[in-house]
Each structure stands twice: as C-alpha cells, then as structure tokens.
C-alpha cells in the first residue's frame, strides 16, 4: 500500500482552527497506524494555497510553500478550507477552474465552511446535499439554488463529497474521514490522543439546545436549564419545574419565557429531542426504548416531536445518521 495523498487547499482566513486541527488528525492517525505495526501507511498531507501568506500574527506567520497550481497527479482526498466570507471564497476564478479540472482525478472531495461555496461554484454540488457554517447557509441557498442545503448538521456526506461547518467541527469531519478509511479503533485513538470528544456524527446539530436558546440571566433558571438537559426522563411538567425553581407556575412560565425566549414546554421538548437524537445516532436501542429513556412516554409522542422539530420521523432520522456503536 502507498499512503493516501491528501491535498489541503488552505484558504486565507482569520480563524485557522480547521487547518491546524485537520492536519493534526491525519498526523495522529498515521502515527497510531505505525505504532500498531499496521500495513496501512496512513496519509501523506500536502498543504497548498492560492496565497503565499495564509494568516499572520505579530511574531508568527503561516505560509504555504506551494500554490495549488503546482499540484499534479491523482489525489485521494482534496480539502478546501474556509475563508472569512463567501465573497472571499468565490473571488478566485483560477481556483474554481482548477477545481473543476482536478475533481475527476480525486477520490474524495471535502469543503469546510465557505469551502463549500468553492465546490458549489465549480458545479460539483449540483443536485447534492451540502452544508456550511450556519452564518452562511442562507447565502449558499441564494447563490446556488441547485444545491440542497441542510442548515443543521455539522457535516454532510453525499457520495464522495463531504461538506462541513468548519471551525472546531472540522475535527469531527476529519475524524469521520479517518474512520471511513482505517476504522473506528484508530479514530478513537486519534480522539484520545488529541483530547477531544468522539464522535459527533454528521447529524449532530451545529448548536445544542443550550447554545441555540438564550441562557437565563437568573442563576436558578440557568441551573434549572442544565438540570433539565441532564434529566430528560424526569417529571418536567410546569408544576414540577416551578417547584424546583421555588416559583408559582404562573410566575415561572412568565419569567422563563422572558429570559429563555420560549415556553418551558417547548424547551423541554427540544432537550428531549436532542437526547433522543444522540441515542438514535450512537446506540442500537429501539425507538420505544429511546422514547422511554428520553421522557417522551411513547414512541408516538416522540414521533410527533421529531416531526415538529426536524421534519422527519425517528426511524428516518436513524436511517440517515446512525453510526456503529463503539465496541
């Protein structure tokens, strides 16, 4: 076997987490394969760029040694990282033309953050599912209506093309590539070595319910929100939550709505849907079991909640995002 050739087109950007993080993931995977005396040689990564200086700070500069124009021959995985804005990603016509010419000799294409816009501009996402950072999904839909934009997942795979939200979620996408190539054991080892959470599948939301809603200003309500997230199967009725917050039900509903931006019932449903999503993604439990563990009471109640929150049933959600549970 020969190492898989990974070519990263590092785009100029103020935030470079996905560049360094992705490089670390492939490096760690190669190291762990060698330590395991595997016959799989892992990866050889080349970094190229449309600019000489990718990012500079006082006392530190990230520079690319080669231009993308110098890349020749077949590529296993081609990664386009993100820029600060979609306009920055799309202004280089030479890069888009080069990508059109290079894609046919590439096994797997990856667009991170606004790198998705470059793939779309090259016509590589027409008729496909794709995602980008939540800030840019509306813009992606407007500019490329032929692309089926999914706003929620942290990454999407459609055939041999991956697109993701970038930033810290670029590590999740890189891990998914490693797992696809060399298996879950090595991917787990990479996560442990790099000390980050494994493994958010592509179906994981860009925001947890705690991040996507307002956190209450009052400490008792903030603590209550965290407690709800940790205890989705508990009695989470308005009356029970009001008692825990030491308020009357009427005052509790009024204060919760003002500080969190939604009713207690709506918040509880979203927490339970999020908990159920994780179990459907990462465990083999049946839908009725998941419904019980997450406090829905019945599979039908969970189905209604999923339809309302995600537009699909729990069974359809699992068919899209289920990953083999860790052994």
Structure commentary:
This protein is of the alpha/beta class and 327 residues long. The protein folds into 2 domains: 4-194, Rossmann fold (3-Layer(aba) Sandwich); 209-321, Arc Repressor Mutant, subunit A, CATH 1.10.10. 47% of the residues lie in helices and 15% in strands. The protein contains 15 helices and 11 strands. It has helices spanning 17-35, 86-90, 93-102, 115-121, 137-143, 169-182, 184-194, 209-212, 219-230, 238-244, 249-260, 264-282, 287-293, 299-310, 314-321, and strands spanning 4-9, 43-49, 53-57, 60-63, 66-67, 75-80, 106-112, 129-130, 148-149, 155-158, 161-164. It has a 7-stranded mixed β-sheet, sandwiched between helices. It has a two-stranded antiparallel sheet with strand order 3-4. α5 links the parallel β8 (129-130) and β9. The protein is elongated and about 70 Å long. The relative contact order is 0.09. The model has no long low-confidence stretch (mean pLDDT 89).
Helical fraction:
40-55%
Q: Which structural class do you get from the secondary structure elements?
A: alpha/beta
Shape summary? elongated
Mean model confidence by pLDDT: 89
User: Compute the gyration radius: what is it?
Assistant: 22 Å
Run of helices and strands: EHEEEEEHHEHEHEEEHHHHHHHHHH
**CATH homologous superfamily label of the largest domain:** Class I glutamine amidotransferase (GATase) domain
């Amino acid at each position: 076997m020969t190492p898989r050739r990974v070519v990263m087109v590092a785009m100029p950007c103020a935030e470079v987490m996905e560049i360094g993080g992705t490089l670390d993931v492939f490096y760690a995977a190669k190291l762990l394969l060698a330590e395991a005396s595997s016959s799989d040689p892992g990866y050889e990564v080349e970094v190229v760029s449309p600019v000489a200086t990718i990012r500079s700070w006082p006392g530190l500069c990230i520079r690319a040694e080669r231009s993308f124009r110098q890349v020749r021959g077949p590529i296993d995985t081609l990664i386009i990282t993100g820029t600060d804005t979609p306009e920055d990603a799309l202004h280089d016509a030479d890069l888009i033309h080069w990508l059109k010419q290079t894609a046919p000799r590439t096994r797997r294409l990856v667009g991170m953050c606004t790198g998705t816009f470059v793939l779309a501009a090259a016509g590589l996402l027409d008729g496909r599912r794709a995602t980008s950072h939540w800030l840019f999904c509306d813009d992606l839909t407007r500019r490329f209506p032929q692309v089926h934009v999914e706003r929620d997942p942290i990454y999407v795979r459609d055939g041999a093309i991956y697109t993701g939200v970038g930033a810290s979620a670029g590590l999740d996408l890189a891990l998914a590539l490693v797992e696809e190539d060399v298996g879950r054991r090595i991917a787990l080892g990479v996560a442990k070595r790099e000390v980050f959470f494994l493994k958010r599948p592509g179906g994981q939301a860009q925001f947890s319910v705690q991040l996507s809603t307002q956190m209450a200003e009052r400490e008792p309500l903030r603590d209550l929100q965290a407690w709800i997230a940790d205890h989705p199967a508990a009695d989470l009725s308005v009356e029970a939550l009001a008692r825990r917050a030491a308020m009357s039900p009427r005052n509790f509903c009024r204060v919760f709505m003002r500080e969190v931006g939604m009713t207690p019932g709506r918040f509880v449903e979203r927490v339970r849907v999020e908990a159920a999503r994780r179990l459907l993604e990462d465990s083999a439990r049946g839908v009725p079991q998941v419904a019980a563990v997450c406090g829905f009471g019945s599979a039908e109640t969970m189905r209604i909640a999923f339809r309302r929150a995600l537009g699909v049933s729990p069974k359809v959600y699992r068919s899209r995002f289920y990953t083999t549970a860790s052994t």
